[in-house]
Specification:
about 260 residues, alpha/beta, 2-enoyl-CoA Hydratase, Chain A, domain 1, Lyase 2-enoyl-coa Hydratase, Chain  A, domain 2, 2 domains, six-stranded mixed β-sheet, four-stranded mixed β-sheet, 10 strands, binds coenzyme A
Length: about 260
């Protein structure tokens, strides 16, 4: 499929979606949301894709939020439809069965921060800045930010960031648990791809089971969470990978998981 606002590439089982409107710091308008959503459908339909990476074009920005220009034309109905499009796109992203890494190469503000938070984890460049500045525009985060940020960094920190709308640098984001790693701008994609390749070398079924167990277990009580894990553990034995992993260990060789990619 041809896209105007994103670049969609697949290489060695690793897909990359690059938000590509650098002249406005990759801000998201309705077209970008639609295209991103379509690209996620493509990823979902392609069995050969093992890991998805999201990043932004240029060296300045991942995504600087929703395209503010469009707010001037919004009435409540348009606002509702934009927000619903955002929610459906975020749900699609969150529910992808494969691991998704955000390579945050600059500003991750508003919807950009929300997209990054909906990924499984974030690597950030040293110049990256995170924030939910919607309050400064007289609105609040609308793509899940009031729910995801407190779950990642705790309620008090999330409230300070959302109430002030302030931006925080990558290192601070890492210290509060928002980003896993901070790399130089030049190193960012190499580090993300290295981790993506390590993940892609593992079994597809076990990766899926691990992701589902973590995601589904996070919002339930611990006892329910343990039950979710037990079912996910059992699910792993529907694949020959479980026997292959144990056999390879006992035979002192590298396991070959069905359909996995070499590191
Ligand atoms: N929507 C629309 N346009 C945006 C944008 C957004 N979210 N963020 C940046 N841009 C545009 C700017 O208007 C500017 O366009 P221009 O060259 O036609 O004037 C261009 O991108 C470059 O941005 P600029 O503000 O000049 O860069 P900067 O380095 O001085 O500041 C930011 C960068 C990210 C701090 C600043 O652009 C900003 O605060 N953006 C809005 C972030 C935001 O509130 N996001 C949440 C939206 S809900």
């Amino acid at each position: 499929m041809a896209y105007n606002t994103i670049i969609f590439k697949i290489r060695d089982g690793i897909a990359t979606i690059t938000f590509n409107r650098p002249e406005i710091l990759n801000a998201l308008n309705a077209e970008a949301l639609k295209e991103f959503s379509n690209a996620l459908d493509e990823v979902n339909a392609n069995e050969g894709i093992r890991v998805l990476i999201l990043t932004g074009a240029g060296e300045k920005s991942f995504i600087a939020g929703a395209d503010i220009k469009q707010f001037l034309t919004f009435n409540p109905l348009k606002a509702k439809s934009f927000s619903e499009m955002g929610r459906s796109m975020m749900n699609k992203l969150r529910e992808l069965p494969i691991p998704v890494i955000a390579a945050v190469n600059g500003f991750a503000l508003g919807g950009g921060c929300e997209v990054a938070m909906a990924c499984d984890f974030i690597y950030a460049s040293e110049n990256a800045m995170f924030g939910l500045p919607e309050i400064t525009l007289g609105i609040i985060p609308g793509f899940g930010g009031t729910q995801r940020l407190p779950r990642l960094v705790g309620g008090s920190m999330a409230k300070e960031l959302i109430f002030t709308g302030k931006m925080i640098p990558a290192e601070e984001a890492k210290n509060m648990g928002l980003a896993n790693k901070v790399c130089s701008q030049e190193q960012l994609m190499d580090d993300v791809i290295k981790t993506a390749k390590t993940i892609a070398s593992k079994g597809k079924v076990s990766l899926r089971a691990a992701k589902q167990a973590i995601n589904n277990g996070m919002n339930v009580d611990l006892t329910t969470g343990f039950s979710i894990e037990i079912d996910a553990f059992a699910l792993c034995f529907t694949s020959p990978d479980a026997k292959e992993g144990a056999s390879a260990f006992l035979e002192k060789r590298t396991p070959y998981f069905k359909g996995s990619l070499k590191e």
